[in-house]
Write a structure and sequence with these properties.
The protein has 489 residues and is α/β, with parallel strands linked by helices. It has eleven helices and 20 strands. β8 and β9 form a beta hairpin.
Length: 489
């Protein structure tokens, strides 16, 4: 006898919750979907985030009885890391407010900063333990709440960071912290949208391969006793379907094209021309630079703590940047870099790789400034002394627009390269871009790069989003005892 589904949608259409819902257009018409216990769904496609919000109870169901939760005894929690998610910047409440991600390196630890333990403790489902009576009972309840925080931190490998300011957590640690926060609310269903990409304040940053694998492994452990939690994943096209996922839904244009058990849906989609990646594929994509770098051990390449210099194609080219045994520290935190030496010469193209960000180029561009006309210089740090002619500038810009007209990443990329600076630094510049736009940007970068005087430094976490480089440097995790590793691409 089949078990009662936790979520059941039968022949139901939906309208957005707006000021005039009756006049709003219908999406996901005549949709049918069911989530049964022990199923782990991966939802792919352009409207995956919308379907996840529908499953979590958002939007207006037509008819109202078409969406039911017959077997649900607990709650549903949605954690979104995707573009357009409600969470912006760092973890909400990190310093009694919001800020942008790179501020964790710039800001000093202030008295109003919140530790991870405090931040998670405020997320536990239930009342304040002192609301219900005497001091002894309150102290016992506090001890129980502390144990819940420590248990979920252990499950998500966060215990060593509990007394650390949430402002200083890395991308992967912050992501696990948000999932821990959701789990402390004791959901029966956990929906995680784009767990392997993050989009604070309009930009998207992917995880490096080790962090990706760790997060996938941690999610695979759910559900677990004594309070089982079902998992729904919203995945990007470049994200492989986890090996532990049991079912797949594929969406296009607000319609479910295929759904069911993974072993049946993936072959069907591939036969129809859909490129579906799977962690267990025998035929894997060609290894990228990142695959090579993350598989290499420290003793197989040069390190910044040895006298051997970083690799260079030509020592006769002009030096543009030179660092010698530098240390970067924001007290009282551990050093981000120490004993680090690096020389960048004209003509070199470098790929720095790190599990944390090292730049702050992804500023939030207001909607009224996202146009070709507003790629003009605002100060000398962003533009050369002799900017290109307006005709050449406008011609290059309009070759990308209007298709990518509102893409703030495209605007930032063009702003960085159109001026022909001696040094171009691209920090996750192509992450989250439409693949067609990204490939055009990569081609423009290759065609316009002047190897006689320019140098390129490109930071990336996804192989397809790293431009062609000659050399790479793998930077250590902040506070670790490891050192930087250099190598040839």
């Amino acid at each position: 006898m089949p078990r009662t589904p936790l979520i059941s949608i039968t022949s139901t259409s939906f309208r957005p919750t707006t000021s005039s819902p009756l006049s709003a257009s219908i999406f996901f018409p005549d949709t049918t979907f069911a989530l049964h216990p022990a199923q782990k769904w991966s939802i792919l496609g352009s409207s995956k985030s919308t379907l996840l919000s529908i499953l979590c109870g958002s939007h207006i169901a037509i008819p109202p009885t078409g969406r039911r939760y017959p077997g649900l005894r607990g709650t549903i929690q949605l954690v979104s890391f995707g573009t357009g998610s409600a969470s912006t910047g760092m973890l909400a409440g990190a310093n009694r407010g919001e800020t942008y991600l790179s501020a964790r390196y710039e800001a000093r630890r202030e008295e109003f900063d919140v530790s991870l333990r405090e931040w998670l403790g405020g997320s536990i489902a239930g009342k304040n333990p002192f609301d219900e009576g005497g001091e002894v009972k309150g102290e016992e309840a506090l001890g129980e709440r502390k144990k819940k925080v420590e248990d979920v931190a252990r499950d998500l490998m966060l215990r060593e960071f509990l007394d650390q300011s949430v402002m200083t957590l890395s991308n992967g640690q912050s992501r696990r912290a948000r999932i821990a926060q959701a789990l402390l609310k004791r959901p029966e269903v956990l929906a995680v949208d784009e767990p392997f990409s993050m989009a604070p304040r309009g930009w998207v940053m992917g995880l490096d391969p080790p962090s990706h694998n760790l997060l996938s492994e941690l999610l695979s452990r759910l559900p677990h006793a004594p309070q089982p939690t079902q998992v729904l994943l919203g995945l990007r096209p470049q994200d492989p379907v986890p090996a532990w996922s049991t079912h797949i839904t594929y969406i296009s244009n607000d319609r479910i094209l295929a759904q069911g058990q993974k072993e049946f849906v993936i072959p069907t989609l591939r036969q129809s021309g859909k490129a579906i990646l799977h962690e267990g594929d025998a035929q894997k994509p060609a290894p990228t630079l990142l695959d090579k770098v993350w598989s290499i051990s420290a003793h197989q390449a040069f390190t910044s703590q040895k006298p051997t210099p970083s690799p260079s194609k030509s020592t006769s080219r002009p030096i543009l940047v030179q660092m010698s045994n530098i240390q970067i520290t924001y007290p009282p935190r551990p050093p981000l870099l120490q004993n680090f030496s690096w020389t960048i010469r004209a003509g070199e193209r470098w790929g720095p790789l790190w599990s944390q960000r090292i730049g702050e180029d992804h500023i939030d561009i207001p909607p009224n400034l996202r146009s070709p006309a507003n790629l003009r210089p605002t100060n000398n740090t962003l533009w050369p002394p002799n900017p290109p002619s307006r005709a050449r500038q406008t011609g290059k810009v309009h070759s990308f627009f209007p298709k990518a007209y509102t893409l703030r990443r495209t605007a930032l990329f063009l702003r960085a390269v159109v001026g022909k600076r001696d040094l171009i630094v691209l920090d996750e510049a192509f992450s989250g871009m439409d693949s067609v736009v990204r490939d055009r940007c990569l081609q423009a970068l290759a065609d316009g790069f002047d190897r006689t005087r320019q140098a390129l430094v490109a930071v990336g976490h996804v192989g397809e989003e790293v431009p062609e480089v000659d050399m790479w440097v793998k930077l250590p995790e902040g506070g670790s005892d490891s050192c930087a590793v250099f190598g040839d691409a």
